[in-house]
Each structure stands twice: as structure tokens, then as C-alpha cells.
Amino acid sequence: MSSPDRVLDIPALGYGAANVGNLFRALSDDDAWAVLDAAWESGIRYYDTAPHYGLGLSERRLGAFLQTKPRDEFVLSTKAGRLLRPNPEHTGGLDTANDFHVPDDLQRVWDFSADGIRRSLDESRERLGIERIDLLYLHDPERHDLDLALAEALPAMEQLRADGQVAAIGIGSMVSDALATAVRSADLDLIMVAGRYTLLEQPAAADVLPACRETGTGIVAASVFNSGLLAASEPRRDGRYEYGQLPDDLWDRLVRIAAVCADHGVPLPAAAIQFPLQAAEVRSVVVGGSRPAQLEQNAEYAALAIPAELWQNLAAEGLIPAR
Question: From residue 60, how far is each of 20, 65, 140, 210 by CA, in Å?
């Protein structure tokens, strides 16, 4: 169980730095710096990255930026579980199979051993150019071997925390079962719940949130716009839902949610950012963005006053869990 005096003080709004790793489209170094600068100037003080994001490019760019800031003024998290190694099959192509527009001269190699977890942390420090990483997540453990994660990787991360190498540990995943199992099986501080507790759908409410309540584990909510469906006040029927088309039932739900928000004069994206924070277990919401204006707008949405009646009406219509 997470000790109250060990819980990391994490800001309520964070920036997820996958975009500066050239997720979906290439950014120049200057463009990436402008995005990070907009996040900082908007008051964002929590930054999350991973080796997976752009085969290390996100860590390098984020680290270069944060090295110009006072270290005690921000919280930094990265992830472990995938090591980056030379790709023997590189022929000049790009990593677009993983949605990153970077050369695929490296490959991701799963390694949940204690040595692999330590190597991952050390190599992330080197790419970031920052020694102190506050929070280390195990990245997508169910995509490799959840049992091995529970038996080897998470105990290794617990040891890193005990040794003072990181202040807090957790896992990041899009799968509720994996998140809940990990919370109940290991001594975690924070977990990153990606897309499973959003204004549009809340499968994590059934198992992950109760597990976190029982253990005192905090939640960082990510992918709160559901692949962009909640990123505009007027949803589009042809919007992408994860890796395919939006199902009819979710589209109907989305239209109803947008209507309630409109009735209260609340932009849908503002409600999407602030919804997870209505749960006591959620400590922070992480948003992405590949343009400075997106970061500035998201910070404004996060600070917007939202009437309690909005949440009450959404709950009364069965669109969000009643609390």
C-alpha cells in the first residue's frame, strides 16, 4: 500500500510529450521547442515522456528543454520496459508502423528483468540529460508479459524507489484489467490510465478506481480526448476512435454529452480535461499537443470554472458515474 508520506506531489495538469517525438507528423527541433515553451509559459509543470516515443527523440528534446529550467520547479516522468537497440534491418525507413515519423535505425526490445529496468532508467537519464527522474512507469506491460511484469519488473522498480533512484513508481496502460491487477499486486504510487477514464467512457471506474481507493494509489489520466473525439466542442461523426471507426453507440453518447455541455455553456474539451479530476483518486490529467496554441488552449480549459450542475446533469442522464 502506498504510504501517505511517500506520495509524489504532482501538478494537476501535465504535458504528454509523445508529439515532440514526432507522433503522427514530423516536427522540427524549433517547432518542438516552441510547443514545450508554450506548455511551460502556460503554467504546466509536469512532463511525461518514454523511450517508445520517437525511439528516444521525445526524451532528447524534452530533456534539452527542461535543462534550461530550475530542476525543483517541475515533475518529470518516463517509462521502462522497452530498451532501444540498433535495428539490423534499418534501410533508411521511418518508424511509421508505430506512428512516429523518425528513422527506424533503432528497435524496441522488451526487457522486464531487474537489469533491464535499471538499464532503461540509466539510458533515459542519458537521453534526457537529467539525472533526477521523479516517476517511473512500466510501459504497457500487458503487451509483453503481465505475469513477468508482476514477478520481476515491478519488484525491480520497487527496489529502485527504495534505493532513492526515483521518488515514485507505477505502470502506464490502456487496459483496465492490467492496471487493476498491478495495483493490487505491487506497491505502486501512481498509475497512468490511458483512455480508460474519460468523459466519453469510464471502464476503469469498475475495477481500477476501487483498487486505487483500497491501496491509496493515485491516478494520472491520459488520452482524455479519446483520440481527439472530445477535442472540439462540436464532435465530428467521422472522428477516429482508437484504431478504427467510431461505433454508433459511442457516437450517440458523445452527442448527448456535447449537448449537456452546450446547455451549460461549457466547451466540451474543458469538460473532458476536468472530468477525471472529479474523482478523488485522480491526481493529474496529462494532455498532448503538437502546436503551441493547443497547449495554451488546454491550459485555459483546465482553469475554466465549470458549474457543479454540469457533472450532476451528466450523472443524472447516466453519461458519467454518479459519485
Answer: 10, 9, 21, 37
> pTM of the entire structure?
0.95
Tens-digit pLDDT profile for residues 241-275: 765 678 888 899 999 999 999 999 999 999 999 99
User: In one letter, which amino acid is 5?
Assistant: D
Q: Which three cell numbers stand for residue 163?
A: 534505493
Q: Quick check: 141 and 161 in contact, CB under 8 A? A: no
* CB contact set of 273 (below 8 Å; sequence gap of 6+): 13, 224, 285, 287, 298, 301, 302
Q: Which residues are catalytic?
A: 53
**CB contact set of 22 (below 8 Å; sequence gap of 6+):** 54, 57, 100, 101, 102
Residue 94 bridge partners (DSSP): 103
Tally: H helices and E strands in the chain: 11, 12
CA 223 – CA 307 distance, rounded (Å): 23
Beta-carbon neighbour count of residue 257 at 10 Å?
Answer: 22
